[in-house]
Amino acid sequence: MNPLLQKLQPYPFEKLRVLFKGVTPRADLAPISFGIGEPKHATPALIRDAVINAMSGLASYPATAGSEPLRQAIADWTRQRYALPAVNAATEVLPVSGSREALFSLAQTVIDSRSTSEPPVVVCPNPFYQIYEGAALLAGAEPYFVNSNPARNFACDYASVPDAIWARTQLLYVCSPGNPTGAVLTLEDWRELFALSDRHGFVIASDECYSEIYFDEATPPLGGLEAAHKLGRGFGRLVMLSSLSKRSNVPGMRSGFVAGDASILKQFLLYRTYHGAALSPMFQAASIVAWKDEAHVRDNRALYLKKFTTVTPMLADVLDVRLPDAAFYLWANVARTGLTDTEFAARLYADYNVTVLPGSYLARDAHGTNPGSGFIRIALVADVDECVEGARRIVEFCRSLAQ
Asked: Which regions span the lipid bilayer (predicted)?
């Protein structure tokens, strides 16, 4: 067996199952789960219809590079969304089976574990999406975690990373809007990251799967390719990853893309040819329809806006929480309750049948602290009424602690 598998940690939801083992929640309250970030809004009819109309594609093997119409639809969307002058559909876009799969396999393509006497480094935000860590470890690299700072809108302090670490870095994962904090990288953040990449030669992978869930139609989150263009540079050593899962409520399609540096995508396509993760022709056809339509995406955002503007003030009375920049999570500090994040999650589940995810499960101990400790992640993915009821129970739970 691959010995590197032994370095992998249990996934956060496995830790949650262990935390809840032996706990029987109140039977008189229907379960409400804010734990998993799985979109629950209805899949738009135009996408469902497109899947049905493309069922003949089941009789064909899919092309790893995706169909030309799909690559063009993605290139057009990327160009329009980020105000880019041009995106080459043939060389700068690659459809993938969801951003999660691509985030993992990209590291296997990029990392050269034999290039230095010391193991290469993959720099990750902390808290973070655990795929980054697993991808680094199984590529033979060492993850290095850069803690987020609540005082800086949960931005990572990349200036604190020693030069010796940057010298060994081959890949930097960023997530904007962030999971779990919802923070969006600014243009100045990107300027700093590009300067570091230019100096040390590492690749930047920008995970932007939450980019289309935001609260002000006039100010969509800044993307990595957009930042590169605004700063007058090309896509060298930069790729961005996006997905239809959250944008279009189709997590079961596992449809996304990678765009950016053509030289990286050429090698990534070679890897994927052997990896065998081509997107079904049926889902490729439906993805074209999804990427070409924005009306359903605006409707989706309106649903999230209603939930966040209703629920956030309710919870702010009992927890330290505020509206995030984007994405569909609330990142709430539970310190004022006197409970740890794991105690809070366990007791809330037992007493009110509401599931939230302890923040410490989404982070690692690094530089003397776990930056997720004391926080919980609340995924507002259910319908409005269920989210409001869940928030009401959390408020009641917190107030019961103060009595």
From this structure: none
Query: Could you tell me the domains of the chain?
Result: 3-42+296-401 (3.90.1150.10), 45-293 (3.40.640.10)
Nearest CA-CA partner of 94 in 61, 66, 73 = 66
Residue pointed to by tokens 């990595």:
224
CA triplet 378, 173, 259: central angle to 5 degrees? 105
Strand (E) or helix (H) holding 165: helix 163-168
Q: What is the per-residue pLDDT across 301-312, written as a single tens digit (0 to 9) for each?
A: 999 999 999 999
- C-alpha–C-alpha distance, residues 380 and 375, integer Å: 16
Query: Do residues 99 and 132 touch, judged by C-beta distance below 8 A?
Result: no
d(CA 177, CA 74): 20
Are 121 and 142 in contact by the 8 Å Cβ rule? The answer is: yes
**Amino acid 113: pLDDT:** 87
HSE of 321 in the Cβ direction (CA atoms, 13 Å)?
29
Is the pLDDT score of 240 beyond 80?
yes
Is the pTM here over 0.90, yes or no?
yes
Answer whether residue 403 shows pLDDT above 80.
no
Task: Please tell me whether the peptide bond between 120 and the residue prior to it is cis, using omega within 30 degrees of 0.
Answer: no
In the block, residue with structure tokens 């830790």? 15
Cβ atoms of 176 and 156 closer than 8 Å:
no
Query: 3-class DSSP state for residue 135?
Result: helix
pLDDT in tens, 71-125: 999 999 999 999 999 999 999 999 999 999 999 999 999 999 887 789 999 999 9
Specify the amino acid at residue 276. Answer: G
Closest CA to 229 of 84, 352, 97: 84
What pLDDT, on the 0 to 100 scale, is given for residue 115?
72
Tokens 């609540």 sit on residue? 150
